[in-house]
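in:
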């Protein structure tokens, strides 16, 4: 099986919450390599000259770990079969900005300019590059002849030596465009997370959340714990709106959002915030998978919601048709056409599934559980349960206990 090496590199970069750019002629991608910092500081930047220097200063068989004058770090390399393409992973930072960087910005850009620069830095991933370097070195060593690959670190990396056009600092767009660029990326990650949740895709939602975690928000309240709670409460509202788009009934939405609102407010350790957010993503996605009715017409959505919320009541084709002001035969036809099963089969399936959960999670008698799912005749309940599950309710509970 052949492996796409570029996809492997992208996966490695994504695992560290970093971008991977493949820079080749006509070098349009190069403007994105630092999330637009140089483009904002120097609108007249010579990108072709920067690309030429990169091709000259990133030797073959070499992984260059470089740091620029903004204290941003990058990994740069070429591949044997693509000598005219420079791969760039980054940027990231080893820690907070140095006092010298802050002071330089204040002296040359003023307080408003420094605030804009700080918002840019709030979107830069902070990490130790050891794990990335080890993994990347192991991968790249595989594509070069044995003994020819090397790793070099360059703090004064020639292509990244940058003297911005100071006159650009006096232009209003600088103080707006740079923060706006980072905000656009943060909102894009947030939107991707919401879209994934609305589709019930936990894997994609978690990936988007990890990208969102790259951004550090300024403290707005008295303590980090209060900031974390506020962020989680906002996320809870957004997730609620996301699954609402998938036609999940408000009953279920209110149930999950209310429960997480209590969990968030009761959180006492700021270090638990990330785990709680992951739990929220997982469960909201599960709700979409279980309760979304987006694929059905509004009429069938109404019927399904009424059934699911009233399983403990008498449910008949005639009463449900009357609720929708249509004939029983037409409802039966529509229901089978959209769901692939008869109305009676669907109701029985939902009752059996709820009963199975009760058998697993409670000590209630079979008769009590049968009544709770709307069946007063225990013998009939046992019959439909065995037809669906293959065993009687009593035998099912014994299997679970074993």
């Amino acid at each position: 099986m052949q492996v796409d090496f570029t996809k492997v590199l992208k996966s490695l970069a994504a695992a560290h919450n970093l971008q991977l750019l493949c820079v080749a002629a006509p070098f349009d991608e190069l403007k994105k390599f630092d999330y637009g910092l140089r483009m904002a500081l120097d609108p007249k930047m010579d990108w072709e000259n920067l690309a030429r220097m990169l091709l000259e200063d990133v030797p073959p068989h070499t992984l260059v770990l470089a740091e620029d004058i903004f204290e941003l770090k990058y990994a740069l390399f070429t591949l044997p079969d693509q000598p005219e393409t420079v791969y760039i992973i980054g940027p990231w930072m080893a820690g907070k900005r140095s006092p010298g960087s802050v002071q330089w910005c204040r002296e040359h850009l003023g307080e408003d300019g420094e605030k804009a620069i700080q918002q840019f830095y709030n979107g830069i991933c902070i990490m130790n590059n050891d794990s990335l370097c080890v993994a990347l070195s192991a991968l790249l060593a595989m594509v070069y002849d044995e003994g020819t690959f090397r790793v070099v670190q360059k703090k004064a990396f020639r292509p990244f030596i940058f003297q911005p056009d100071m006159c650009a600092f006096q232009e209003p767009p600088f103080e707006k465009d740079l923060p706006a660029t980072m905000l656009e990326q943060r909102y894009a990650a947030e939107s991707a997370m919401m879209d994934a949740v609305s589709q019930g895709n936990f894997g994609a939602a978690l990936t988007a959340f990890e990208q969102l975690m790259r951004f550090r928000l300024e403290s707005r309240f008295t303590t980090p714990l209060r900031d974390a709670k506020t962020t989680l409460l906002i996320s809870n509202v957004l997730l609620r709106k996301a699954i609402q788009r998938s036609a999940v009934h408000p009953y279920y939405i209110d149930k999950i959002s209310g429960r997480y609102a209590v969990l968030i407010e009761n959180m006492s350790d700021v270090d638990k915030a990330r785990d709680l957010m992951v739990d929220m993503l997982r469960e909201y996605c599960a709700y979409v998978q279980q309760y979304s009715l987006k694929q059905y017409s509004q009429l069938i959505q109404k019927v399904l919601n009424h059934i699911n919320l009233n399983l403990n009541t008498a449910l008949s084709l005639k009463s449900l048709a009357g609720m929708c002001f249509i004939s029983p035969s037409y409802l039966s036809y529509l229901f089978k056409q959209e769901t692939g099963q008869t109305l009676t089969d669907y109701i029985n399936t939902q009752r059996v599934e709820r009963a199975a959960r009760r058998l697993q999670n409670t000590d209630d008698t079979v008769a009590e559980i049968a009544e709770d799912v709307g069946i007063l005749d225990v013998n009939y309940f046992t019959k439909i349960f065995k037809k669906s599950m293959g065993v009687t309710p009593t035998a099912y509970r014994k299997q679970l206990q074993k």
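note: Strands lie at 19-23, 62-67, 73-79, 82-93, 125-126, 150-154.
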